[in-house]
Design a protein that fits this description.
This protein is an alpha+beta fold. The protein has a 5-stranded antiparallel beta sheet with strand order 4-3-2-1-5, with no helix packed on it. β2 and β3 form a beta hairpin.
């Protein structure tokens, strides 16, 4: 039943590792702020160290992994087709 629920509602399991770059969405301003994952507090709460040095608590729904792979993928794509970057 849990698997069916997760498939129907597009539930995502979050597996953060200490030091992972993440984007955290602030609840009041609704802005995405860059930071790094510090530690897990509970079942869905995480401590995130923001780029300004402060550490705040965020729910798993307010976090997204920051992907640094996009520039590498584009570079590989550009090299494959001899495109300027």
């Amino acid at each position: 039943m849990e698997r069916q629920f997760n498939l129907r509602h597009a539930a995502v399991q979050h597996n953060f590792v200490e030091g992972d770059p993440v984007y955290a969405r602030h609840c009041r301003s609704q802005e995405w702020m860059a930071g790094s994952f510090a530690k897990r507090i509970g079942g869905r709460l995480y401590d995130v160290t923001l780029t300004d040095g402060s550490t705040r608590k965020f729910h798993a729904n307010q976090l997204r992994l920051s992907s640094t792979q996009t520039t590498d993928d584009f570079t590989a794509f550009a090299d494959a087709f001899n495109l300027p970057e």
